[in-house]
Design brief:
The structure is a single chain. By secondary structure, the protein is α/β, with parallel strands linked by helices. It has one domain: P-loop containing nucleotide triphosphate hydrolases (Rossmann fold, 3-Layer(aba) Sandwich). It is about 30% helix and about 20% strand. Strands 3-5-6-4-7-8-9 form a 7-stranded mixed sheet, sandwiched between helices. Strands 1-2 form a two-stranded parallel ribbon. Helix 1 links the parallel strand 1 and strand 2. The longest helix is centred in the middle third of the chain and has 17 residues. The chain starts with 16 loop residues before the first strand and ends in an 8-residue tail after the last helix.
Length: about 260
């Protein structure tokens, strides 16, 4: 990572800028909510700062808690990650499954997690803070990136170490393209999650690419396959284009992260 403070070397910038695209958010962030990120521990060479870039036409159901997400740091080693305290939820998926778009939609932000036409851009474990004790984590995409086998092996070891050692990890969201679910890499990720005794949520992204009936049928097929495979995994349809599935994901995250006032039993 660069030490200039202008770039983290991973597509995230450290400049302070606040802007709203389209109509204002129904519940604008307070100065305290915008500023708490400035006090959080960060990766070596990083400085405080966040660009708030809301999606236009916010829906009444959007949970403003997740709009507060801000980039903290990115780490290629477990010992470079933020302190292992509080609670965090990680997102994993193939490099072309729409993981970054899903995170942006869940947080109702355009460019929180950087999307790219080149799969495999996320090459480090990226941390986003929701408040002083809760985080979302974007894990490196797997299975597609055009990198050497040595680098892929390094990513695999990083993912395994993170899932096994991270005590603050409360749950794992595995993102799969509904048109190509349950690849060998997806099943490996689910198995790692089970071995780590994590709560698991499987999101079938790009559900808008299928007709409603076909999407529901595919969800049932995947749910049955996962059940036969010996695991208790919630399976939901999701679309970054239509925001289908956003509220169910919020409910799961609320429970895992212990968000008061919204957590379900």
């Amino acid at each position: 990572m660069q030490r200039s403070g202008k770039s983290m070397g991973n597509g995230y910038t450290n400049r302070i800028e606040t802007k709203v695209i389209g109509p204002p958010s129904p519940q604008p962030l307070s100065r305290r909510e915008r500023g708490f990120c400035d006090t959080l521990p960060r990766g070596r060479g990083s400085k405080p700062g966040i660009t708030f870039d809301f999606l236009s036409n916010p829906e009444p159901s959007i949970n403003p808690f997740y709009q507060r997400a801000c980039f903290v740091t990115a780490a290629a080693r477990v010992d470079r990650m933020p302190p292992d305290q509080g609670r965090e939820v990680a997102f994993a998926g193939r490099s072309n499954a729409g993981k970054s778009s899903a995170i942006n939609t869940i947080c109702h932000r355009r460019q929180l997690a950087r999307t790219s036409k080149t799969p495999g851009r996320t090459q480090q474990v990226v941390f986003f803070a929701l408040d002083e004790t809760r985080r979302l984590v974007d894990l490196p995409g797997y299975g597609y990136a055009k990198v050497s086998e040595a680098v892929k092996l390094q990513w695999q070891r990083l993912l395994a170490s993170y899932l096994e050692q991270r005590k603050s990890l409360a749950g794992l969201v595995v993102v799969m393209d509904i048109r190509h679910p349950l690849t060998a890499f997806d099943l490996q990720m689910l198995e790692w999650g089970r071995q780590a005794e994590l709560e698991l949520l499987l999101l079938l992204t790009k559900s808008d690419k299928l007709k409603r009936g076909a999407a529901r049928a595919e969800r049932e097929r995947v749910a049955k396959a996962i059940a036969v495979d010996g695991g208790r995994v919630q399976v939901d349809l999701f679309s970054a284009q239509t925001r289908l599935g956003t509220e169910p994901v919020h409910s799961v995250l609320d429970r895992w992260l212990g968000v008061r006032g919204r957590a379900t039993e």
